[in-house]
Amino acid sequence: MAEKKRIDAPTGTQTVGHEWDGIEELDTPMPRWWVWTFYATIVFAIGYVVVYPAIPFAHEASKGLFGWSSRGQLQQVMDAETARRTPILSAIAATPIEKLVAQPKLMEAAMQGGAAAFKVHCVQCHGSGAAGAKGYPNLVDDDWLWGGDLQSIEYTITHGVRNPDEAKTRISLMPAFGKDGILTGTQVQDVVSHVRVISGQEKASASSRRGDVLFQQNCAVCHGPAGKGLREFGAPNLTDPIWLYGGDRETLTQTVTNSRRGVMPAWGHALDKATIRMLAVYVHGLGGGEATPVAAQIAAQAAGAPEAQANAATP
Amino acid sequence: MSPVNDVTAPAESLYAKRKSVFPKQVDGPFRRFKWLVMAVTLTIYWATPWIRWDRGPHAPNQAVLVDLANRRFFMFGIEIWPHEFYYVAGLLIMAGVGLFLVTSAVGRAWCGYACPQTVWTDLFQHVERFLDGDRNAQIRLEKAPWTPMKVWKRLRKWAVWLVISFLTGGAWIFYFADAPTLQHQFWTGQAPFVAYGTTFVLTMTTFIFGGFMREQVCIYMCPWPRIQTAMTDEKSLIVTYKHWRGEPRTKGLKKAQDEGLPTGDCIDCLQCVQVCPTGIDIREGPQIGCITCALCVDACDKVMAQIGRPRGLIDYATEIDCEAEMKGEAPAPVRKRLFRPRTIAYFAIWASIGLAMLFALGVRSRIDIAANAERNPVYVRLSDGSIRNSYLIKVRNMQSRARPMAIGLDGLDGALMWREGQTRDQASRTLQIDVPPDQVLKERVHVVAPAQGIARQDFAFTLRTLDEQKEAAQDDESFVRPEVGQ
């Protein structure tokens, strides 16, 4: 294998002293430019270690000559972005939500900001397309328990639903008719039959006729004598095809027996005013938004249907 | 023992050094035509970006502009949007077929006269001749040792080449931005980096290709000689040496004639070789290095006149003409060689692409609508039982003025729609929108239709302008309902 080093005749270069099958390796010197480039990289590396954070210590790395850090650079970018957004966000926060609609530029920012905030805070319950799930309202349809106009949505997001930490929260407490012994098991079934009749899922029967009487005594206070619901109490319309928990017999039996008390956080504690406002605008734009505020609806309802007002007045 | 020692002769080099070409000055009709083509092509190239074209306040006022930032291509009265890129593709195909047409009719005329490599090389050779003298002086200078005088001459030549490269190669950037603005930015250091980078790259490639690589680009780098050879046939014009007339070559013509030896017209003066910009000898027959610039024809005709022989020993002629001449027959008329199936076919393809594009340009719509159904959720059941679908609609206004338009529903009976941010009580069958000039407007719309109906019902979003032009467009879509029983 290793033999004596010697000079190779045709090239005049020294060999490294190895031979395999008659093939020898020349010990060709490095080109000078290569060597100098190599030295230059060493010099560069030393400079790099001095200028940038590079040497790891127990808890942090060396600071570098100019105090640069990737975290600091990120902070700079974030600060610049915050500074860029601040005027828009404060304008959104300062504009009442019903007047926001008339300002296309703010609306565009609000729509985009709302869509982004929705993806962070709301999709966990309401789904990425806002179509909800069992027990989590569908925000894309036009069925609103507490009102679907801009102010109502903003209020709901700010104060939540049945939120124990919030005094102004949306609250409606349906009795657990079966569990609390207000209705017997048969009576619950009769009420369920009646509800399935008024929602067009069943034909009238003896059971549903008994249920109608029970309904008027126990349920009409909140749901209205016709079962159309009352937003003042967040009582759902029982005659439409939209069900938060389901309109089948089994689910309805559970609902009447045990009541449903879904809770939504009061985002006023967690999010700033502008973000909540942007969320409200975005949710309103999903297609189910309503024009008239809930207060005006109630007034119109009261003027047109005195008995509804009477029902509403009775606790 | 190692066999390395047994190698005594140095291995033959695999690389042949380039032989420098020092073409001699020549004059004649082809040379003058070459001057003309150079002047015209360079003028067009240099002046085009500076032609102004008033398009109003919303569009650039440059006649020819490739606006990469806004993805527009402007060419005088024509504005091309990215989705209309087939016009550019059509132009490229026309350029290709046009090259086939020209090649089959008059040979490699592109190579000889119009190719940028030829034009710039020619320009650089003139600079060389003007500064260093003609062929012999250049050869002397090349062989001379590196005296201060030679260094000065070389630096002077390279400097002029560099200036030309910068002025011509760098001018390319003006096709991609407003020329006067960009020029001001360029000199004040405010131009985008890509402008400086492009200028540098094109200056250096012009300098190197035109100054140093020259015929090597044609022979080794360019694919066209290979392809163009396939385009020519016996009826295409090529530069030919008429060997039956020229051979045997006779150097001392008078002496040979006196001695009664056989003589050809070629007196082996080598003028044809000395003037050739690619350094070939045309008397060796057609070859890939010949770009058919016909400068050898000019040179040879001059010599023929001096020795009292007819012109055309080296000639720009078809192979068929040459054969006819060899047999003593009259050459075919020019129209016969121009109008033949091959050229007619190329012309027909070329013209029909052109006409099709002109027609498409004439009737093309300057508005466009594209709707995309939302899929999350696919449909929504509303409290009155009806079904709602949502769509993202993009409306394009390709004119440089704001235009009022109406989006409507075609089909889908009983359906209404409203746009994002509005409410259902504002729903109708048409929506009015003002689309800003030169912009794509996005609208999210909600369409509600009765629940009764098939699961996937076809309909169309229609778009029409509410101005005097009354343009219309539409996009087909589907309305999705839950299957029966769901």
- What percent of the residues of chain A sit in helical stretches (DSSP H or I)? 40-55%
- On the 0-100 scale, what is the average pLDDT of chain A? 89
pLDDT < 50 runs, ≥5 residues of chain B: 1-11
- Cα(first) to Cα(last) distance of chain A is 105 Å
Q: What structural class results from the helix and strand content of chain B? A: alpha+beta
Q: Characterize the overall form of chain A.
A: elongated
Order of SSEs of chain A:
EEHHHHHHHHHHHHH
Throw out a few tags for this protein:
heterodimer; A: 315 residues; mainly alpha; two-stranded antiparallel ribbon; 13 helices; 2 strands; disordered C terminus; B: 486 residues; alpha+beta; 5-stranded antiparallel beta sheet; 4-stranded antiparallel beta sheet; 17 helices; disordered N terminus
3D structure, described in words:
With 315 residues, chain A is mainly α. Chain A has 13 helices and two strands; from the N terminus they run ββααααααααααααα. In chain A, helix 2 (70-94) crosses helix 11 (273-285), helix 7 crosses helix 8 (206-218) and helix 7 crosses helix 10. The longest helix of chain A has 25 residues, at 70-94. In chain B, strand 7 (380-381) and strand 8 form a beta hairpin. Chain B contains 17 helices and 14 strands. With 486 residues, chain B is of the alpha+beta class. In chain B, helix 4 (116-132) packs antiparallel against helix 6 (148-169), helix 4 packs across helix 8 (193-213) and helix 6 (148-169) packs across helix 8 (193-213). In chain B, the strands form four sheets. In chain B, strands 6, 7, 8, 10 and 12 form a five-stranded antiparallel beta sheet that branches. In chain B, strands 11-9-13-14 form a four-stranded antiparallel beta sheet, with no helix packed on it. Chain B has a three-stranded antiparallel beta sheet with strand order 1-2-3, with no helix packed on it. The chains are: A mainly alpha (315), B alpha+beta (486).
SSE order and pairing:
The complex is a heterodimer of chains A (about 325) and B (about 475).
Chain A: E1 15-20, E2 23-26, H1 32-51, H2 70-94, H3 97-100, H4 104-121, H5 123-126, H6 150-159, H7 185-198, H8 206-218, H9 220-223, H10 249-258, H11 273-285, H12 294-304, H13 306-313
Antiparallel strand pairs in A: 1-2
Chain B: H1 29-47, E1 64-67, E2 72-75, E3 78-80, H2 86-106, H3 109-114, H4 116-132, H5 135-143, H6 148-169, H7 179-187, H8 193-213, H9 215-221, H10 224-231, E4 237-241, H11 243-246, H12 253-259, H13 271-275, H14 295-306, E5 314-318, H15 319-326, H16 334-338, H17 341-363, E6 367-373, E7 380-381, E8 387-397, E9 403-410, E10 416-419, E11 430-435, E12 439-449, E13 456-465, E14 472-480
Helix pairs in contact in B: 2-17, 4-6, 4-8, 6-8
